[in-house]
């Protein structure tokens, strides 16, 4: 079996720089729209996390600032590699959204 490489940690310095830039640029969760407390540490569910618009698993660039935004850890876990609408439905308690029905396109970001 071949092991998949985690693109986010293959260049740790570059990812840390990007994380610092995203934390400095944004104050609100891109999924739920609520403020993010940047003093909370992982694994707190409301701690700050960097999320990719186009997930790495779907071809997104983990080092591109234009592909990254700030989210709560909890919101990012709900989103996983799906869309924001999928995560918002789960956060609202509506589970009728089927993950397999979510269209996802990459546009060379």
Quaternary class: single chain
User: What characterizes the major β-sheet?
Assistant: 2 strands, antiparallel
Query: Which H/E pattern describes the elements?
Result: HEEHH
Distance between the termini: 30 Å
The overall number of domains is 1
CATH class: Mainly Alpha
Question: What sort of overall outline do the alpha carbons produce when their principal axes are compared?
Answer: globular
Strand percentage: 5-15%
- Under the CATH scheme, the architecture is Orthogonal Bundle
Query: Total helix count?
Result: 3
Summed over residues and divided by their number, the pLDDT gives a mean of 84
- Fill in the CATH topology: DNA Binding (I), subunit A
Describe this structure in words.
The relative contact order is 0.17. It contains 3 helices and 2 strands; from the N terminus they run H-E-E-H-H. It is globular. The chain starts with 11 loop residues before the first helix and ends in an 18-residue tail after the last helix. With 109 residues, the chain is α+β, with helices and mostly antiparallel strands. The mean pLDDT is 84. The protein has helices spanning 12-25, 73-79, 84-91; strands at residues 48-52, 68-72. It has a two-stranded antiparallel ribbon with strand order 1-2. It has one domain: DNA Binding (I), subunit A.
